[in-house]
Amino acid sequence: MSGYLPPTDMSRPFVAAVLLESRNYFSNRIREETLLDILEDVSRLRTGAGVVLFPGGFFDAGRASAHSRRSRIENSVRNKLDDLQRDWVVCLGVDGRGYRDQLAMAIGKEGILAVARKFHAAPNEQINLAKAPLVAESYFPRIFSFNRIRYFLAVCYDSFGIRHRRLPNPEVDVVLNLVHQFNPSSERMSNERNFARHGFAGASRQWNCLVFGSAVFFHRRVSESWPTGVYWDQGDRSTMEWKYNDNAIRVMESIRKNIPEGEALIRFYDIRDCRAKVNKHE
Question: In CATH, what class is 14-281?
Answer without folding.
Answer: alpha beta
